[in-house]
Amino acid sequence: MSPRSFSVLIAIFMVVPFVAADSFTFSADSVKSVLAKGKERTSLSGKARVKSDTINITADAIEISGSGYSTLVCKGNVEADDQKNGIHLSAPALTYDRTHSIALLEGPSVLEDSKNKVVMKANWIQDDGDKGITVAQVNVRILKDGLACRSEYVVYRRANHVLELSGAPRVVRNGDEYRATRMVVNTETEEIILEGAVAGSVHSEDSKPKAATGVSGEAGSGPVPQIPAGTPAGAPAGRPTGAPAGSPAIKPSGKPRRVRRSLC
Fold first, then answer.
1. Which in 25, 51, 97, 120 has the greatest CB count within 10 A?
2. CATH classification of 3-262, choosing from 3.40.50.1390, 2.60.200.30, 3.90.1150.10, 2.60.450.10?
């Protein structure tokens, strides 16, 4: 056994007794530990990995600290699997609270919900594994089968299959486009609620543009609609940019209103 491997094994044996209620193992090319009471801290670098009964994390570097080694700060090519909830996370940086099962992703991040076949991308994502609630901010995009959503702020309630979108939200499904001040989308029933200044365009089956296929890394095997590139966030109400001439548009009345529409 090499000296490096030996130091890793010693660190593992010394850490596990502090977390007997939820023990975990770790490995890395290099391990440094401080075991003084109240200052417990372990730093992993180079192919760092932490694995417990509920989550498996890999990164370039991981620091483990806090009471009962409850806090994991991960940096560089972070990949995490929440096996209990069927969630896969990837980000440049991730902070994970093992006590409350809360993951905070920073930088261009991706959350894949395999149970509901939903993919979420944003520059900031916080996922509460126990409550099943995800909050995302800044350049948020959600994809599910033939549905594509874009917004600046999203609350995703996984148990209810509900997306709450605000901040110039837009939804595209099979060529039909909807915009409003706020939207609520049910990813299971494909029902959408539009609130505020509502606008959009709906095409007949014959005139609908063909959706792009073969998008790498997206949920579902069917075609994925694309939100037209180059359209500024918060574009003025009316016919959406990129809509064919003559397509029908839902024009706002000047007063906030609430519209419920099925996307079936």
1. 120
2. 2.60.450.10
